[in-house]
Write a structure and sequence with these properties.
By secondary structure, the chain is α/β, with parallel strands linked by helices. Helices cover 41% and strands 14% of the residues. The strands form four sheets. A seven-stranded parallel β-sheet has the order 5-6-4-1-12-13-14, with helices on both faces. The protein has a three-stranded antiparallel β-sheet with strand order 3-2-9, with no helix packed on it.
């Protein structure tokens, strides 16, 4: 199990181009108006038309219609109660499909990879994620077994690809049996490269190696900035389970996902996350705002962090100008953890420097810097 657990939110992918939660719909609308939603243009239109219809609820209740997670959650609850203003009951399910497509297409169009000399480099400034992967490597034991794990709420593939690029294999924790010598990467809300079996509802990841066997790197573009449309190509992936093709769209869920619909597959990820938290001595939350809508994580932390291990550090990193994030986390931590809590107004890349200096011996940290 892990001594150190990283909890990553949208801020950890911001430098790679992925929009933050509050900016997501603005970016999606921009893509729609510029005609860059490709074949998913009608899905974008459907979502924004439904958001316009939801304006009527503001006269009686507060609903953040500028926040993609709040909107996604509202549509999901609308499906459960079979009621959504301006949307007929038989249009609610297609609306949820369109919302997922809006999310994955927006992420595909905003995260930029770099193709040079027939090699695809991770998104963001050069070396951005190399430093994080190097930190993870230094936190491994002599046998190559990682002593840290990652919990993330991000759907994007930025970190997944970076870990693979720097030869740090991941375990998505979709099985009860842990993969040896792999970094546990628990994506609590799903992932753009996860498909769902249409029969048994199990989740099957489409890894990058299989993707590039079907779609070569050189077919993306000759050179320079490129977008990786793995999620858009899931329908033609050829992935099968239970003898049938998987569902065509990625398995991504809103923060308010209910166990009836999404329990199969994702529950294993959440169970593993609870286990990792219970053994953690160090918890570092980076770029995660602990949104009010993400109620499930509050309970996951409360129950999952119960264990014999004493927390030594609970540090939160977020360039929060209004101090709202700090306030939310202070309400989350218990009495025994308060003295271990620190809040740093720093972005992802600077957070890694601070953590590396704290956890690694000076000589290892200097080696880490030399590798960048």
């Amino acid at each position: 199990m892990s001594e150190t657990v990283f909890i990553l939110g949208a801020g950890a992918s911001k430098s790679a181009g992925a929009p933050l939660t509050a900016d997501f719909l603005n970016k999606a609308d921009e893509l729609r108006k510029e005609g860059k939603a490709d074949e998913f243009g009608p899905d974008f239109d459907r979502v924004f038309n439904a958001i316009s219809e939801l304006q009527i609820v503001q006269s009686k209740a507060r609903l953040d219609l500028d926040n993609i997670e709040s909107v996604f959650a509202a549509f999901e609850i609308g499906r459960l109660v079979n009621k959504l203003p301006g949307v007929s009951s038989d249009e609610i399910k297609p609306l949820l499909v369109s919302t997922r497509r809006l999310i994955f297409k927006t992420l595909e169009k905003t995260t930029t990879y770099y193709l040079y000399d027939d090699r695809l480099y991770p998104p963001g400034p050069m070396g951005l994620y190399a430093k994080f992967v190097a930190l993870i490597r230094n936190l491994s034991d002599g046998a190559g077994q990682s002593r840290c794990s990652i919990i993330t709420f991000n759907y994007d593939l930025v970190l997944d690809y970076a870990l693979g690029f720097y030869k740090c294999p991941v375990d998505y924790c979709l099985s009860k049996v842990p993969k040896p010598a792999c970094i546990p990467l628990m994506k609590l809300h799903g992932s753009l490269n996860w498909a769902r079996c249409s029969k048994c509802r199990e989740i099957i990841p489409w890894d990058f190696r299989a993707f590039f066997q079907k779609y070569s790197v050189t077919s993306l573009q000759k050179r320079g900035a490129v977008h990786l449309d793995l999620a858009s190509k899931l329908s033609s992936s050829g992935l099968k389970h239970c003898g049938e093709n998987v569902e065509p769209d990625p398995a991504i869920v809103p923060p308010t996902w209910n166990k009836t619909e999404y329990h199969q597959g994702l529950s294993k990820v959440w169970i593993r996350a609870a286990s990792e938290l219970s053994d953690a001595e160090n918890i570092f939350a980076i770029g995660y705002s602990l949104a009010e809508s993400d109620l499930f994580f509050r309970y996951l932390f409360a129950l999952g962090s119960v264990g014999k291990t004493r927390i030594k550090r609970f540090w939160v990193f977020d360039p929060d100008e209004k101090d709202e994030v700090q306030s939310r986390f202070k309400k989350l931590v218990g009495l025994d953890t308060e003295s271990k809590f620190q809040f740093h107004k720093l972005p992802f890349i600077e957070a890694i420097d601070v953590i590396s200096k704290e956890l690694l011996p000076k000589k290892d940290y200097e080696t880490l810097l030399g590798e960048m």
